[in-house]
Amino acid sequence: MSANPSVGRVRCPVCARPQAQCLCSLIPRLWPPTQVLVIQHPDEASHALNTARLLVPGLVNAHLLVTENLQEHPAWIRRLQDPQWRNELLFPGERAQVLAPAPADVRPRRLVLLDGTWRKARKLVYLNPVLQTMAQVCLPDGLVSRYRLRKVPQPGALSTIEAGAEALAVLHPGFDKHALLAPFEALIEGQIRAMGQARYLQNYGAGPDRAGE
């Protein structure tokens, strides 16, 4: 046994996985025209299976903002209110329009994703008026999550990295969503192998209510 109990728990600063299970070799460096901003609830930052930490490094023009209150980040509020950008919030709701390319709009596009449980994601919207005033979009129906370690709370619910990959594929036909999802697939497969198929089937027939991981 190591004299240092912290040895073996050192995590990669990029993907946040234990060093022995680092997924960075699978993370691409893609540059879609649309900028992505992931607003992560602080409670999600240390979640073992969080996928925002796999999504953002895979996109050159993506940003991860860990906060519950955007008032602490006035520069981002200004960016999200900038009329020279097409800013959209990817979040289902009554006023959400199905995501689609905007060939007639010459403005640069920014897509905002919320990373957290559904309850926390709704709280992020409630606490931040700038999110309430943004154009709201949703993914097309019929998408199925591959996050097999969680039972989705409703049809079409996806992990954060899946939502980002599917959204960019809709906006930019030909976008390589499979390259973006490669570390996520490896993460899930590795977790299932580690626990064994029998335990996986026993323990993950149900899961918590999560909007993104």
TrEMBL record:
Signal sequence range: none
GO biological process annotation, one example: tRNA processing
InterPro entries: DTW, DTWD2/TAPT
Molecular-function GO terms, alphabetical: tRNA-uridine aminocarboxypropyltransferase activity
A Pfam family per the record: DTW
Residue ranges annotated for the DTW domain, each copy included: 8-196
Keyword line: S-adenosyl-L-methionine, Transferase, tRNA processing
EC class: transferase
Entry EC no(s): 2.5.1.25
Coiled coil stretches, renumbered: none
Family matches, as PANTHER family: TRNA-URIDINE AMINOCARBOXYPROPYLTRANSFERASE 2
Similarity field: Belongs to the TDD superfamily. DTWD2 family.
Full protein name: tRNA-uridine aminocarboxypropyltransferase
Provenance organism: Halopseudomonas pachastrellae
